[in-house]
Write a structure and sequence with these properties.
Elements (H helix, E strand, L loop, with lengths): L26 E5 L8 H6 L25 E3 L4 E4 L4 H11 L5 E4 L7 H4 L1 E2 L3 E5 L4 H10 L5 E5 L6 H4 E3 L3 E4 L5 H11 L2 E4 L12 E3 L4 E3 L5 H11 L3 E3 L9 H4 E3 L3 E5 L4 H10 L13 H11 L1
Parallel strand pairs: 3-4, 6-7, 9-10, 12-13
Antiparallel strand pairs: 1-15, 2-3, 5-6, 8-9, 11-12, 14-15
Length: 300
């Protein structure tokens, strides 16, 4: 499903971010026909079918491709920036309202919540600069089963330095040992220090779910195979938003929903839909190798 929307400008940034500015654009949503139902029987019966539609919204303000900067998505909750417009929020609301809680919040007084937080269905990690009021708001809004932990870490843009699903977390090689232990405990995952295409910001250059992962387009086949073996999910090298290699900042994904910029091309969408298994019969083996090669050659 593709939806055009906009949200308010933000001049906030994090020094660890590997881009210089936020592009003006809209965003796109891909989803299975039905998210998991709270009822296990209904969840098993839910069909996986890709939906693609477009809607034009006449709103004022700027719109951005960096969906992963202003939102966080897991299988048990979604966080949306407090500064996002109603159009941005409504896309998450339409797909997730009756499935998982959608929490509007700031982190450390900023809107860039997707780059400051990292989490999965079991837990949420926030930087030590998160205020007591913000922390209490999250605890009041998220399910009781979700553990929330403030981390005192020099590399405080946690969304840039951690890439996690419900089983494994890849982290920046220079994170503190205590931080690594907290990640393992709160998220309930195995933790590995890794790079992606020789980049240490694993959360910026990877987007990960329990179904698959998208990594920096220059990631070698050997590295893809090694990471895939480590994560036990299929991985594909690709991009979002017409050639952006910062895939973690350009999209969010869980096991049934992906949101990315409307600048994302048909070729990029096909790769995303396939590797995250969002459509009927779509698995990484169905991604045409020539199509991937053409995408990389065109953009890089």
């Amino acid at each position: 499903m593709a939806v055009r929307a906009q949200f308010e400008n933000s001049n906030e940034y994090v020094s660890a971010m590997p881009w210089s500015q936020l592009d003006q654009a809209a965003f796109l949503l891909l989803s299975a026909a039905s998210p998991p139902s709270p009822n296990p029987a209904s969840r098993r019966a839910a069909a996986r079918k890709s939906l693609c539609t477009r809607r034009q919204d006449a709103t004022n303000g700027l719109s951005y491709t960096r969906v992963g900067v202003f939102s966080t998505l897991t299988n048990s909750y979604a966080l949306v920036s407090q500064g996002a417009s109603e159009n941005f929020y409504s896309v998450f609301e339409a797909e997730l309202q009756d499935v998982i809680p959608i929490v509007r919040t700031t982190i450390a007084g900023t809107r860039i919540i997707g780059r400051l937080t990292a989490g999965n269905r079991k837990g949420l990690l926030v930087p030590t600069t998160t205020s007591d009021q913000e922390l209490q708001h999250l605890r009041n809004s998220l399910p009781d089963a979700v553990r929330i932990q403030r981390i005192e870490e020099r590399l405080s843009a946690l969304g840039n330095v951690i890439a996690a699903n419900d089983h494994i977390a890849l982290i920046h090689p220079d994170l503190e040992r205590e931080t690594e232990e907290i990640i393992a405990d709160v998220l309930g995952v195995e933790v590995f220090r890794q790079t992606v295409a020789d980049h240490v910001l694993v959360g910026s250059y990877m987007s990960l779910s329990n179904q698959g992962g998208l990594v920096h387009p220059k990631t070698s086949i050997q590295d893809q195979d090694e990471l895939s073996s480590l994560l036990q999910v299929p991985l594909v090298a690709g991009s979002v938003n017409r050639g952006s290699n910062v895939v973690g900042a350009g999209m969010v994904v869980n096991d049934w929903l992906a949101v990315t910029g409307l600048d994302t091309t048909a070729t990029e969408l096909s790769v995303i839909e396939s590797v995250f298994r969002l459509g009927d019969g779509n698995g990484p083996s169905n991604i045409n190798t020539n199509m991937k090669d053409t995408m990389v050659e065109s953009f890089y």
